[in-house]
Design a protein that fits this description.
- The protein contains 46 helices and 6 strands.
- By secondary structure, it is an all-alpha fold.
- Helix 40 packs antiparallel against helix 41.
- Among the domains are: 1-81 and 90-250, no CATH class; 416-626, no CATH class; 780-1051, no CATH class.
- Residues 76-89 have a biased composition (Polar residues).
- Residues 104-129 have a biased composition (Basic and acidic residues).
- Residues 41-90, 104-139, 1007-1051 are annotated as: Disordered.
Length: 1051
């Protein structure tokens, strides 16, 4: 039943608006009949007290840091019954409830209709503009575009698709569906009421407002809607709360509102929101790492409570499947570390099947077998970033699912699809110790049979001869599944060819076939397919061996029947670098564990015979084009990453498989509107667009190729640098994909360093003044995107973003001609570090330990942060870092301990005898050296200064740091000397950056004293916990940048 106070809180809460809202509510409810779901109370209509909100909603003040909300919006409270409200339920309610329940289908049919039936609403012509605004708002919770030949599992029955009942050629356009009564009611509220509440242009003192809002309320909450709310146990407040979630400005804010709402409902014992709200949030095209973890945490809490109560309300079959599919999709994109938590969710969702003692019926067994094998496949799909680093999480998640399959009665069998999923993940592994021993025993000739160096090795057995993939293939065959071309390709990558000759066990991403549950093998065994030949080319050690395999493919295949897979595999071998046998990588890795190729044997007898010399990458690329093979997929990304200049990169784009419009937009975006540019960029794969952005940023200051961009304000074409062109593309795309922005930062860092080297070698062809203006333009664009102020591009920074940003800060500091505020440079890197570590923006630098961490930075990230703080003379933040590390002492405990449990009296001896510092001890040693320096006394009484600090640190600050470092322990002299012996060069570079900053400050102060009075610091240069011994005020890139096209005025 409705609580009028709670409903009123949904209306704008400004002093001049709240009385109007109360009057409208009183007017509407006085004219409505006493329906269940909307219950009117005459006593409350006479005098409505002030609205009170639960204390938990005060936590929402943090969303102002995440994004701006439209004015006039307020927070709907939960549906709590007032003290004076009647507790009785009229008898007519039971009749309505019985009639609705009798006409209602079972839960599975309702859930299936909820998920499968894609109904669209036709907006009325009289409210077209308002509905278009609402539709644009709701588009944040929909996929960005319908992908061709892709099935939308949110409404498509996968069983029908597998059986060929549904065509995958023309997917439906994404739309916010209203296929169930609750969805329709919520959509009516969003279309009819929410625009009035959110519209800042509405005059709340107008006379006609009450009538308009009242009429919309009557239309939305009519008798049929009231019956729906009564039957489902919800009321008007719940609908307003759901609308409050879906009217958020960003997905992250919507997730935060959803978790806060479910937490309050959980504590009060009220009914949780319907599951389609959660599924709609997960249907968004992108969710940040932090938001996904918060959702998973909330879901796990709900499922644990449901498991304790042995009741799963609202968790229908299709709802469970859609939830898992969407969680896995987002985890692959932003958070592979969440795969294990998602496997826990799967265990909770289906515990009512395997946790019981009853036997599964045949339909249940078939459906669960299909489902769990499909989950194994979804887990095995490659993550968007670092696909070769996520295999531990993928393997653990698959292992948990396999154990669940064994727990069912009877057990769920592994199908062909499940075996292929397990093999896909195992192919990502590095060699085990036994597999490495077998690899080192192979001869340098081809095929790489075992090399017997002495007679005693004749009877040696090698357990690693049969790799883990080969064991899975053998068990798959024993289970009755014949091997097709995909399995034979996996065997080649696992170390054994089809003729039982050895190959090189190689880590690879083996793309699953279009229908992994079937055996599609049009090629006979006498004619090997292109995927098998591509695997043979990859499973080699050197370019010569790969070329010999490719020549064998061309000989065995008619020129009219060549396929792209072998050509792509060969070109990838030609593009990667070569590893020398005596190099560090050559000693640490064996062939097949890294992408790089190894050198050929120096013994001519071991070289494989080839009829033609190995071509260069460019020669083979031209040969590939002559054969009608055009680049695409990850090969195009590799070509763009290795392109010598922007002109060559654009040539690769023109040669690609993309459509003509996309090619023209990428190379000549100034000729098209922003909508056309955005649509074209959204159609480009993320990895390929990131490679193009990185290419433009790496050559960010090149002026050989003239690039233009149409200014939004004037519409005039302006010449921009390649870096500016890349930044404009990403700004128009409005993408929050971290891969794209990381590519921009990585390229910018490379460009700055290469420009410095070119200037030192005399190879710089750009005028120094123009180059300095380009650097100011680059800094302005980066500050606008990643600075601590409001970010218009919604960039989700990670630790890779911070690493590139720290490199940019170091490069900017080293340029003595750039007059940039050291405070701003520090804020630039610190704000990115905070968002990467906490997953969201936080007010203070390194907040207390009560604020949970999203990810834990490693030694490399901490040392980069130390370098930034020292280079910008930010002593207070350096002290805050020591406090923060010690507050998280338990988190960093593993990286602060020595191996072997070294005692205190043995510590110095072990260090001086060649021990190794733990990672965190090295960071603390660096902080001690950079704060206080280090000097030692010799036997003759003379002191020797090992390192002098570039900072002016008061003695009181040093004592404070030593006191705060008690939990982790302040580094000893022996540890400091050990760190100095190995990291003296790094310390010298950090000290040099700090000295350059001091030199710039002194020069600017000298110039200011002779010419003009320095300006006061702006608010943008202030930050909690960020201070420096000096501050040059505003840098040269200020408000004049936009007027001067990003080039700062000369001092």
């Amino acid at each position: 039943m409705v609580n009028v106070r709670s409903v009123i809180s949904c209306f704008p809460s400004a002093p001049r608006r709240l009385p109007c809202g109360r009057h409208v509510i009183a007017l509407v409810y006085s004219s409505l009949p006493g329906q269940h779901g909307v219950r009117h109370c005459s006593s409350e209509q006479k005098q409505l007290p002030a609205v009170s909100r639960p204390a938990s909603w005060t936590a929402l003040k943090t969303e102002r840091d995440e994004g701006s909300e439209k004015p006039g919006g307020s927070l709907p409270t939960l549906s709590t019954q007032s003290a004076g409200q009647s507790q009785s339920v009229p008898l007519r309610w039971e009749e309505v409830r019985r009639s609705l329940l009798s006409a209602r289908k079972d839960d599975s049919e309702v859930d299936q209709k909820e998920a499968y039936y894609p109904t669209e609403r036709e907006p009325g012509s009289e409210r077209q503009a308002s509905r278009q605004r609402v539709s644009k708002q709701l588009s944040k919770f929909l996929p960005s575009h319908a992908r061709p030949r892709k099935i939308d599992l949110s409404y498509m029955n996968t069983v029908d698709w597998e059986n060929g009942i549904v065509d995958a050629e023309t997917p439906l356009a994404p739309s916010f569906r209203s296929s169930t009564p609750l969805r329709k009611l919520l959509l009516d509220y969003l279309y009819n009421i929410e625009p009035i509440l959110q519209d800042s242009a509405v005059d709340w003192d107008a006379e006609h407002l009450d009538g308009t809002l009242a009429q919309n309320l009557r239309t939305t909450f009519n008798a049929a809607s009231c019956k729906v709310l009564a039957a489902t146990g919800f009321d008007v407040t719940d609908v307003a709360s759901w609308s409050w979630i879906l009217s958020s400005s960003t997905i992250d804010i919507a997730v935060q509102r959803y978790t806060l709402l479910t937490d309050d409902l959980r504590r009060s014992g009220s009914q949780p929101p319907p599951k389609f709200i959660l599924l709609q949030l997960l249907r968004a095209s992108h969710i940040s790492h932090f938001a996904l973890k918060e959702l998973i945490k909330s879901i796990l809490t709900d499922l644990r409570m449901a498991q304790e109560n042995k009741h799963y309300p609202g968790w229908g079959w299709v709802t469970r499947v859609s939830l898992v599919v969407r969680l896995l999709r987002h985890a692959r994109r932003v958070a592979p570390d969440c795969l294990e938590d998602i496997s826990l969710i799967i265990g909770h969702l289906f515990s009512d099947y395997y946790a019981t003692e009853r036997l599964l019926e045949r339909p249940e067994l078939q459906r669960l077998t299909h489902l769990f094998n499909r989950f194994l496949t979804l887990i095995a799909l490659s993550p968007a970033t670092a696909p070769f680093n996520a295999y531990p999480q993928q393997q653990n998640a698959q292992l948990r699912l396999v154990r669940l399959m064994v727990a069912f009665q009877p057990q769920l069998p592994l199908t062909r699809e499940g075996y292929r999923a397990l093999i896909t993940v195992q192919l990502l592994h590095r060699k085990t110790e036994s597999e490495r021993i077998w690899a080192e025993a192979k001869s340098p000739s081809w095929p790489p049979w075992r090399q017997i160096r002495s007679g005693i090795e004749q009877d040696l057995e090698y357990p690693g001869k049969e790799s883990r993939v080969m064991k899975l293939l053998r068990r798959m065959n024993e289970a009755g599944y014949a091997h097709g071309e995909w399995e034979r390709s996996a065997a080649v990558l696992a170390g054994w060819d089809t003729d039982k000759s050895p190959t090189i066990q190689t880590r690879a991403i083996l793309t699953p076939p279009p229908r992994p549950w079937t055996l599609l093998d049009p090629q006979t065994r006498a004619s090997d397919g292109p995927d098998l030949w591509a695997a043979r080319i990859r499973a080699t050690r050197s370019r010569r061996e790969a070329w010999a395999s490719f020549c064998a493919y061309e000989k065995s295949t008619d020129s009219s029947k060549v396929r792209y897979q072998p050509y792509f595999a060969m070109l990838e071998k030609l593009l990667v670098k070569t590893v020398a046998a005596d190099s560090r990588a050559g000693v640490a890795y064996t062939p097949g564990d890294v992408k790089e190729v190894f050198e050929d044997s120096t013994n001519p007898r071991d070289l494989i015979y080839i009829e033609k010399d190995v071509p260069s990458a460019e020669e083979f690329y031209q040969h590939m084009l002559q054969m009608g093979i055009r680049p695409g997929g990850h090969l195009l990304s590799a070509l763009l990453r290795n392109a010598p200049d922007v002109r060559a990169g654009f040539a690769y784009v023109h040669d690609s498989r993309w459509d003509a419009l996309t090619k023209r937009v990428l190379c000549q975006a100034e000729d098209y509107s922003l909508t056309v540019i955005r649509n074209a960029l959204n159609a480009v794969p993320g990895h390929a667009l990131a490679a193009l952005i990185g290419l433009l940023a790496r050559h960010g200051f090149d002026d050989e190729l003239i690039l233009q961009w149409r200014a939004q304000q004037t519409g005039i074409r302006e010449t921009v640098t390649p870096f500016g062109y890349a930044w404009e593309l990403l700004s128009v795309a409005r993408s929050s994909d971290s891969r794209l922005w990381n590519a921009l930062l990585e390229g910018a860092c490379f460009c700055l360093n290469e420009t410095k080297i070119a200037a030192a070698d005399g190879r710089l062809q750009v005028d120094p003044a123009i180059l300095r203006g380009m650097k100011y333009d680059m800094w302005w664009r980066l500050w606008t995107t990643f600075g601590p102020s409001e970010r218009p591009h919604r960039v989700h920074a990670d630790l890779a973003t911070f690493r590139h940003a720290a490199g940019i800060v170091s490069a900017m500091i080293k340029d003595r001609r750039l007059q940039l505020s050291p405070t701003r440079l520090g804020l630039f890197a610190k704000s990115i570090f905070l968002q990467a570590v906490y997953g969201r923006r936080v007010a203070a630098f390194l907040p207390p330990a009560s604020t949970p961490l999203l990810v834990v930075p490693d030694q490399r990230d901490l040392r980069l942060l130390v370098r930034v703080l020292v280079s910008t003379h930010d002593i207070d933040s350096l002290v805050a870092l020591v406090r923060w590390l010690n507050e998280h002492a338990e988190t960093f405990a593993a990286s602060n301990m020595y191996q072997g449990s070294i005692h205190a009296d043995e510590l110095d001896h072990n260090l001086l005898s060649g021990g190794e510092l733990p990672p965190l001890r090295g960071v603390l040693c660096a902080i001690r050296l950079l704060l206080e320096g280090y000097s030692s006394s010799s036997s003759d009484g003379h002191g020797h200064e090992w390192f002098r600090t570039p900072l002016l640190v008061p003695a009181q600050t040093l004592e404070e740091v030593r006191t705060q470092c008690a939990p982790l322990g302040w580094p000893s002299d022996a540890e400091v000397e050990m760190f100095l012996s190995s990291e003296a060069g790094w310390l010298a570079r950090v000290a040099h950056d700090a000295d350059v900053t001091a030199f710039k400050h002194a020069r600017r102060e000298r110039n200011n004293s002779m010419t003009w009075k320095p300006r006061e610091n702006t608010e943008q240069d202030q930050d909690v916990g960020a201070s420096a011994p000096f501050d040059s005020g505003k840098d040269e890139v200020g408000s004049k940048v936009a007027d001067q096209e990003g080039v700062a005025a000369n001092v």
